[in-house]
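> tool_call: predict_assembly(chains=two)
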Amino acid sequence: MVKVVKFGGSSLANAEQFKKACAIINMEKERRFVVPSAPGKRSGSDTKVTDMLYHTYDMAEKGEDFKKNLREIKARYDEIIDGLGVDLSLDYEFKKIAEMFTAGAGRDYAASRGEYLNGRIMAAYLGREFIDAAEVIRFDDDGVFDAEKTKELMKQKLNGLDGAVVPGFYGAYADGRVKTFSRGGSDITGSIVAGSIRADVYENWTDVSGFMVADPRIIDEPESIDTITYRELRELAYMGASVLHEEAIFPVRREGIPINIRNTNKPDDKGTWIVESTAQKPKYTITGIAGKKGFCAVNIDKELMNSEIGFGRKVLQAFEDYGLSFEHMPSGIDTMTIFVHQDEFMDKEQQVVSAIHRLADPDTVEIESDIALIAVVGRGMKSTRGTAGRIFSALAHANVNVKMIDQGSSELNIIIGVANQDFETAIKAIYDIFVTVKL
Amino acid sequence: MVKVVKFGGSSLANAEQFKKACAIINMEKERRFVVPSAPGKRSGSDTKVTDMLYHTYDMAEKGEDFKKNLREIKARYDEIIDGLGVDLSLDYEFKKIAEMFTAGAGRDYAASRGEYLNGRIMAAYLGREFIDAAEVIRFDDDGVFDAEKTKELMKQKLNGLDGAVVPGFYGAYADGRVKTFSRGGSDITGSIVAGSIRADVYENWTDVSGFMVADPRIIDEPESIDTITYRELRELAYMGASVLHEEAIFPVRREGIPINIRNTNKPDDKGTWIVESTAQKPKYTITGIAGKKGFCAVNIDKELMNSEIGFGRKVLQAFEDYGLSFEHMPSGIDTMTIFVHQDEFMDKEQQVVSAIHRLADPDTVEIESDIALIAVVGRGMKSTRGTAGRIFSALAHANVNVKMIDQGSSELNIIIGVANQDFETAIKAIYDIFVTVKL
């Protein structure tokens, strides 16, 4: 049994958190490969080391004196080193970083040092080998992650090792230049390491005990989710959940490896299991609710639209021509509605409307703004009749007007459109009916 | 006040029905322009005159002796003439028809004689002018109805007349060759006459007292609809209602003329008013329910589909390339479902699936067949919260599994997908909750 364990920034923000993380690692010998993030915030007003690095590098690039800022960053690490009582000096590393900053090594290189240095400390403290991610995670010349080459490099470096520390967030081009993933990318690194060496489990340790059924900013102390499938998570993640980077799913999913989201501060909590498929019944009919405000509905009317071959395609062409993706496209007989992100659509609305007229010759086009979309997701919905009835009754009782409903044949989710101002009320009503009242 | 009154085939099937129709016409002097259909069935086992004409012409075209068949048709008309006691001989007309049949005048000409002759009888009986539709309804060289030219011709011929009879179902090209509308096209003629002369009302007299809330083959003696908007009707008509030809809506709608569906056998019934817009509240929250069996769902999965600009357009392109129109396209985050007519799709399914793969590179494509779509339509739904809740609760109680839900921003209808075998149960459940239980 091999586990890859990834620790987030808050789990490694100071020596105390570091000790917790390393105690967790040492608790099970299967936790062989560790992927650390950069030190996160020690308190609400603190700055993440990654942000400090970006800022310092920007100063260097402008030719400003960045030495004091770099010293502050070093102080963050030294505080951890001292607190852990580990015998390690980062003097040489910081000298090198200062040189590279002056030489214009790039923002990606700068940001990657957060994980790199934390990895060095962790390797020293755990007494495990340190593997620079630049040597095992490869991007091709276009900056696209090269899964094949990475797998090959990973196997070369990691095979035969009892354990190792691989810093998260970055990799390198073939020429060694560092390139980072998008923000939060240590999740991806953990997933790539787990997928490449075909680990049995990918443990992702963070500061919450897994996924919640609904957003805790809307629902007070929501229930947590025991087990969620990759597909369910995708349907929820897109709508705003932020526990796990969405691109972190694919590398492990491809290999059938489950992800276990755990809480460094509550290691006894079982957290959430993210799995390909499961016979386990969810605790409630729904697995989760997520949503997002700020959509526009573009309503298109045309008589006999449905019998006109190519009409829908032409309408979508108009959006594509202006670089817009659409969220949903519910349709009646003579009507069709396209939901798009309001912020992307705003600047282009008149051009898109005129393109729709030009390409598809509709009778009318109307735009409605400030719509929120809510996804109610659950593998349990397929086997439970009346889920939709309960959702819409709950919304009616809460006086929420439903502007759009969309449920495809997967029966995994129902998408509901409401006015922005009804967003929180709607989520509360749905949460209550399924979780609080357990209907 | 000017009314255009159209009578269907069952309202003019024999002398007795003819008298009822003409009594209705003479009851109000506003009923100035009359559009008759051809004689319909006198009983369940009878043949419509239009079908007799098609059959007889086919014989003529094959060089067979059609005289006996033509005599049978003449007998139908003579029976009406005798029953009405009107002084009219169709000998000359039938001689001309026989000549035209032999000369290969075409199936359109043949079929049009049903309305033409009925119009002649009606004009004689009412003592009104007869206007041959070939002189006032014009098709362009491509066989497309020419609204502009028709309006001009109508005005020339009808202006100044106190009343007239214009047979339904046909018109002519500029060179005088007859061309018919599609079957049931007398509804269209009535609408065109009403629209062209800007009538105040278009009365469409048939054998039912207007539209029913649901199909009487599924619901025993369903309630009738007092007032329905054009848009509501379109949403219902497409799904299978057959009282009025769907193309009959446009010519009057464009001029803001209401249609009143009336029952020749129950002239005191107020029938159904079809209007552009109305402040009248519908009797029930829903105006009507209609549906159709025999759809296929094509489920397409692709990771990160929603952020891929052009994905939906490419999928629809695959259907368009094979000449298929789609009904609905509900979508989740990584999934999208396209509903198509099963009979159209069956022969082409493998080509379409491979085109989807080629054009859009999805992860998986799955096909589900034997799905029925049900449209629950009502302008009252927008102002009544909880309609969706009641629908889906009712379906759950009836043990109907909902496979698809689709409601756009018009809030005028909700489209529901169920298994073919649940179709009748679903319609009954929805009818009961809104009409019987009046929830």
